[in-house]
């Protein structure tokens, strides 16, 4: 049984930081590309960042230079360090594990950036 469980969401002021974690079980973690997506109210889900099994990363233009994705294969965990947060970063953030045509999703964690 595959499970992806996200941690670390919450309320933060503009300019602040949060670190999201996603713990995976039931998959050979190191062989999966791991991604963070987000979905704001009334908007489509969008890709935020992806890290491949060889640790290559890609980011949405809107978060480049502010967010960093990383993975610890020994802990089956992927992280998203979010700095200089803006109100427009407010969304539910989802963890995704993907290999070929197979994909799994976490339940999501809310991030709210507001003063």
Offer a few descriptive terms.
115 residues, 7-stranded mixed sheet, mainly beta, 11 strands, single chain
Overall helicity: under 10%
Order of helices and strands: EEEEEEEEEEE
Radius of gyration: 13 Å
Task: Output the number of helix runs.
Answer: 0
Average pLDDT confidence is: 96
Portion of residues in beta strands equals over 45%
Characterize the largest beta sheet: strand count, sense, and whether it forms a barrel.
7 strands, mixed
How far apart are the termini? 40 Å
Any low-confidence stretches, pLDDT <50, length ≥5?
none
Number-wise, the strands total 11
Structural classification? mainly beta
Which term fits the overall shape? globular
Q: What do you see in this structure?
A:
The protein has strands at 3-7, 10-12, 18-25, 33-39, 46-51, 57-59, 67-72, 77-82, 91-99, 102-105, 109-113. It is built from no helices and eleven strands. The strands form two sheets. Strands 2, 4, 5, 6, 9, 10 and 11 form a seven-stranded mixed beta sheet that branches. The protein has a four-stranded antiparallel beta sheet with strand order 1-3-8-7, with no helix packed on it. The chain is globular, with a radius of gyration of 13 Å. Helices cover 0% and strands 54% of the residues.
Short description:
This protein is mainly beta. It has strands spanning 3-7, 10-12, 18-25, 33-39, 46-51, 57-59, 67-72, 77-82, 91-99, 102-105, 109-113.
Ordered list of secondary-structure elements with their pairings:
Elements: E1 3-7, E2 10-12, E3 18-25, E4 33-39, E5 46-51, E6 57-59, E7 67-72, E8 77-82, E9 91-99, E10 102-105, E11 109-113
Parallel strand pairs: 2-11
Antiparallel strand pairs: 1-3, 3-8, 4-5, 4-9, 5-6, 7-8, 9-10, 9-11
């Amino acid at each position: 049984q595959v499970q992806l469980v996200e941690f670390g969401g919450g309320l933060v002021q503009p300019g602040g930081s949060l670190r999201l974690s996603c713990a995976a079980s039931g998959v050979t973690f190191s062989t999966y590309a791991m991604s963070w997506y987000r979905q704001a109210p009334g908007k489509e889900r969008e890709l935020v960042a992806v890290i491949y099994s060889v640790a290559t990363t890609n980011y949405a233009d809107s978060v480049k230079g502010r967010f960093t994705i990383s993975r610890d294969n020994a802990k089956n965990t992927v992280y998203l360090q979010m700095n200089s947060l803006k109100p427009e970063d407010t969304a539910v953030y989802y963890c995704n594990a993907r290999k070929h045509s197979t994909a799994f999703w976490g339940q999501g964690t809310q991030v709210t950036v507001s003063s």
